[in-house]
Amino acid sequence: xxxxxxxxxxxxxxxxxxxxxxxxxxxxxxxxxxxxxxxxxxxxxxxxxxxxxxxxxxxxxxxxxxxxxxxxxxxxxxxxxxxxxxxxxxxxxxxxxxxxxxxxxxxxxxxxxxxxxxxxxxxxxxxxxxxxxxxxxxxxxxxxxxxxxxxxxxxxxxxxxxxxxxxxxxxxxxxxxxxxxxxxxxxxxxxxxxxxxxxxxxxxxxxxxxxxxxxxxxxxxxxxxxxxxxxxxxxxxxxxxxxxxxxxxxxxxxx
Length: 255
Hints:
Order of helices and strands: EHEHEHEHEHEHEHEHH
Mean pLDDT: 97
Number of domains: 1
Helix content: 40-55%
CATH class: Alpha Beta
Shape: globular
Structural class: alpha/beta
Strand content: 15-25%
CATH architecture: Alpha-Beta Barrel
Strand order of the largest sheet: 1-2-3-4-5-6-7-8
Distance between the termini: 20 Å
Number of helices: 9
């Protein structure tokens, strides 16, 4: 089978502490060609850089997730802008809005999201967007600021929302959620997205596809999501992987 590109993973996560090197060595040897690992808290930027330096097929994205906007230094903007210049750091993210848990500060999240979108524009970087329970505010900000190149990661919204995001120029990325029996809305959204705007991701160690739901996810499992996406879009698994790999190469300007 053609080797996989995982456009969104978290290999800095403690879930991989016991076997990270063994796992990644095996993945790159057997099934995966490229991984984008996401350092979405300031304290995770250096570990993410280290991973990109250790593995040829590993690339990185750096940003501050909405749940981590208070755990930052005064010079976070300077540090982020500097690190985005590293050759294997290929995107800013994941950034966005998350209103899922009680106690969130909507105004602070919006302000921080807007500032990081501006940094992406200033540095000419693709941006990876996280949006959970915040669709209206996310769409309003994207309509206003119009990022040059953006992907909505881990999408599970409606087909209507997906179509609007595509109309604004965004790509849409799906995880193992697409394989869940109750994921009818995600399947309808996937069906609505043009094939040349689709990407595949694991969001590992989270979002394991069926039949591994609830277990630790890794990048090899993206093949199961690709199979389901191919079923929805009318392609075989290998052809779907090839299409999504090409979309990722074009979006992130990967070699």
